[in-house]
Amino acid sequence: MAGIKAELVGGPATLSDVDRRREVVDLAEQVKVSTGAGYEHFSHNGQFNTAGGEKIAVFAWTGRTKIAE
Fold first, then answer.
1. What is the CA radius of gyration of the chain?
2. Sign of the dihedral defined by the CA atoms of residues 65, 22, 7, 16, in that order
3. What is the pLDDT along the chain (69 residues), one digit of tens a residue?
4. Cα 13 from Cα 28, distance rounded (Å)
5. Which region, left, alpha or beta, applies to residue 14 given φ > 0 means left and ψ of -120 to 50 means alpha?
6. pTM
7. Residues 65/14, Cβ–Cβ less than 8 Å
8. Which of 22, 23, 31, 66 could serve as 42's disulfide partner, Cβ 3.0–4.6 Å?
């Protein structure tokens, strides 16, 4: 199954450009990125950008959770 190109927006400025571009399988699933001692969460709200003729799903930052110790 082919992935859907996605861009992560918002969240910590320390998140690299490489981490902000990825492929997802399902737009309804939340994207979770491990950073430091926690996770940054991103959700798709229906927005898309077009770059170079490609449709890219925008996932906006929804919050951070800490890793349980």
1. 12
2. positive
3. 568 999 999 999 999 999 999 999 999 999 999 988 899 999 999 999 997 888 999 999 999 999 876
4. 25
5. alpha
6. 0.88
7. no
8. 31
